[in-house]
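Researcher: I've been going back and forth with a colleague about how RNA ligase 1 might be arranged in three dimensions. Neither of us has a model we trust, so I'd like an independent prediction. The organism is Dissostichus eleginoides, in case that matters for your notes. Sequence below.
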Amino acid sequence: MRSLGSVQHKIPCVFLTEVKEEPSRKRDGQQFQVVATETLNPVALEADIHGAVATEKIDGTCCYVTLYNGRPHLWARLDRKPNKQAEKRFKKHQHQHRSCKGFSWDVEEDFKIVPEAWIPAHRVQHLNGHPVPDEHGHIPGWVPVQKDNKQYCWHGSVLDPEGGAVLVLRPGGDEDEDEDEEELEVTAVPLADLMERTLELIGTNVNGNPYGLGSKKQPLHCLVSHGSFGVRNPPPVDFHQISSWLREGPGGRVEGLVWHCSDGTLIKVHRHHLGLRWPDGGASLGERPVVVRVVGGENTDRKDLFSSFCRLNGQRFSRLQDVLFDS
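Model: Here is an independent structure prediction for RNA ligase 1. You can compare it with whatever you and your colleague have in mind.
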């Protein structure tokens, strides 16, 4: 499986941004929004953005695979956030200065308690032994997915109950060069093969389900490894050309783009940065054909997602969003 950069922190926008005093298109209740200017971000230029690999930005919730109790394990994203008093002070500073910079945190007192097993993400800076929040006031981190934790039940649904594998959606065609380049594949991948990678959990109950997967009665979720969906013929790194491609391009029905630079730097642009809606019509990922290749665990008495996919092994669907299980 293709492996590019790992998402362990907030990814900078390819363009410099500014704050506008108008309701956010992305976050309900936020009375300002961050929009892109036409100026390329110096961080992107320093990382040689023009020579980077452009990939589709997947709309889900971030996950991570690393060791827990000595074994490969799926972790869910859990940012440590400020408590109500600290958040109030932070928002006041943000409104007055139109910026997050310059705010002073008391890391020991200002942040909510996290589970004991929580770990900070890579690249999080530390001061006096404590992780330091980023410019948005969050400390990115991870918590292990546990079967008995209802908060992460959709993360747990992609795990094989009888083994250390997870359900992964990835580009198909590896076994037959004549297969459709657009075809996707849902398959079981051992967690050991995903060590230190980050992935996106997508599906029925994640972020409003922009890909149209499953239903309330038959929820469907899977993982997508970051960087696994490259963009063919991506637009040049230019404000107007990217905006036009996202509005009208044949591959533009995506949440955004993420560039994987040769030095490991990740750079992104979201439709909201450019004043474009998301989702806007059918997302292209949900409309691509897919084949199911999930073998093992075909226990007809089990009702879990993994067993449901096992019963579909070998079947093809004209669209990912057409995958349905027998009642």
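Researcher: What would you highlight for our discussion?
Model: I'd start with this: DSSP finds six helices and 17 strands in the chain. After that, consider the following. Residues 84-97 form the longest helix (14 residues).
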